[in-house]
């Protein structure tokens, strides 16, 4: 599957090549219009449903792109990564596509559904670490001890290029898009999407990241124009990172226009909204973009953002569907 591409930060052409690389293996996810949210927000709202993707997350894109360019010797060596859930499942799934094996180190508070997803995808699961950053350190140590090949989400350009195909599909399917709202963990997804969307003749398009108030490190880093680390207490595992990864942060500084913070309550309410009104199951991180936009129309504290989106065509990335049963029960209840 490898194309022989050699890159540092991926370019628009790299992302286009990655899209061609992935197309025989991954179905294109739908971009669905939401009349309900359009009426609520005053914008023309579209949902990029990565919650319908392979392993229930956009992460399969970058994982397959990354693994596809490894040599047979590297694959035979065995792969290892750290993950709060979706990336681990994606890497294990991708490893199986090339007859390889993958070890995943996950934090101790990883929900049962994500543990099961990783194991079902073929991962050897190691539960260690207080958060994703801590699990990364443990994974590096384990890689050195066992001779495994360590792959980190965010610092690998192939993973970013794969994630960027999400943004590429949005502007291909909806060229009139004026703003894209993207949930942000370490920053890899929004970085890749921003390169693709802003290089496809859509430089006026606004790329806006969304984080939880309980995991604000990337938002604060963007504001300070330097990497900052903050503790995280969010229930949304996909955003439970203590700081941006350097490669993604450099891209974000160039291409991302703004960051918005939403509350944990707004995230929880958004999950319930999708289940009740759209019949779509999304996790905390996947619902982040909705929480930001819905709050624009519903909450006085965020009404100051309304002029930015009113009358515009807005796409929101629903990054994954793997929510734990407890959170789902609370959201629907």
Structural features:
about 325 residues, alpha/beta, Rossmann fold, 15 helices, about 45% helix
If you had to describe this structure to a student in words, what would you say it looks like?
With 333 residues, the protein is of the alpha/beta class. It has two domains: 222 residues, Rossmann fold, CATH 3.40.50; 92 residues, 3-Layer(aba) Sandwich (Rossmann fold), CATH 3.40.50.1100. The protein is built from 15 helices and ten strands. α8 crosses α9, α9 packs parallel to α11 and α12 packs across α15. The N terminus is likely disordered.
| Strand adjacency order, main sheet | 1-2-10-7-8-9
Task: Provide a count of the helices.
Answer: 15
Quote the beta fraction: 5-15%
**Alpha-carbon Rg, integer:** 18 Å
The sequence of SSEs as H and E is HEHEHHEHEHEHEHEHEHHEHHHEH
CATH topology of the largest domain, which one? Rossmann fold
Number of strands: 10
CATH architecture of the largest domain: 3-Layer(aba) Sandwich
What's the level 1 CATH class of the largest domain? Alpha Beta
* Broad shape: globular
Average pLDDT value?
84
Instruction: Report how far the terminal alpha carbons are from each other.
Output: 46 Å
Count of separate structural domains: 2
Low-confidence stretches: 1-6, 293-304
Which secondary-structure class do the elements indicate?
A: alpha/beta
Helix content: 40-55%
Q: Largest sheet, if any? A: 6 strands, mixed
């Amino acid at each position: 599957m490898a194309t022989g591409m050699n890159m540092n930060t991926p370019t628009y052409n790299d992302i286009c090549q990655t899209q061609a690389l992935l197309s025989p293996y991954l179905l294109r996810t739908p971009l669905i219009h939401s009349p309900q949210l359009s009426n609520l927000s005053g914008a023309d709202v579209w949902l990029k449903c990565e919650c319908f993707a392979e392993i229930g997350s956009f992460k399969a894109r970058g994982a397959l792109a990354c693994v596809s360019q490894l040599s047979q010797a590297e694959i035979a060596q065995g792969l290892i990564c750290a993950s709060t859930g979706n990336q681990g499942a994606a890497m294990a799934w991708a490893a199986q596509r090339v007859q390889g094996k993958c070890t995943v180190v996950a934090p101790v508070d990883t929900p049962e559904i994500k543990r099961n997803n990783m194991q079902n995808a073929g991962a050897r699961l190691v539960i260690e670490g207080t958060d994703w950053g801590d699990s990364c350190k443990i994974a590096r140590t384990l890689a050195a001890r066992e001779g495994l090949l360590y792959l980190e989400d965010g610092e690998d350009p192939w993973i970013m290029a794969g994630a960027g195909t999400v943004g590429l599909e949005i502007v291909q399917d909806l060229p009139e898009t004026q703003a894209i709202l993207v949930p942000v963990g370490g920053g890899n997804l929004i970085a890749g999407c921003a390169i693709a969307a802003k290089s496809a003749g859509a430089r006026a398009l606004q790329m806006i990241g969304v984080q939880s108030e309980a995991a604000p490190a990337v938002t604060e880093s963007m504001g300070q124009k330097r990497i900052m680390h903050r503790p995280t207490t969010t229930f949304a595992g996909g955003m439970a990172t203590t700081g941006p990864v350097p490669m993604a942060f450099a891209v974000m500084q160039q291409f991302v226009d703004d960051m918005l913070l939403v509350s944990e309550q707004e995230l929880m309410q958004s999950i319930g909204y999708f289940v009740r009104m759209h019949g779509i199951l999304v996790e905390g991180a996947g619902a982040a973009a909705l929480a930001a936009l819905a709050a624009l129309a519903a909450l006085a504290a965020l009404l100051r953002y309304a002029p930015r989106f009113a009358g515009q065509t807005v796409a929101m990335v629903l990054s994954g569907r793997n929510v734990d049963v407890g959170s789902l029960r609370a959201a629907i209840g």
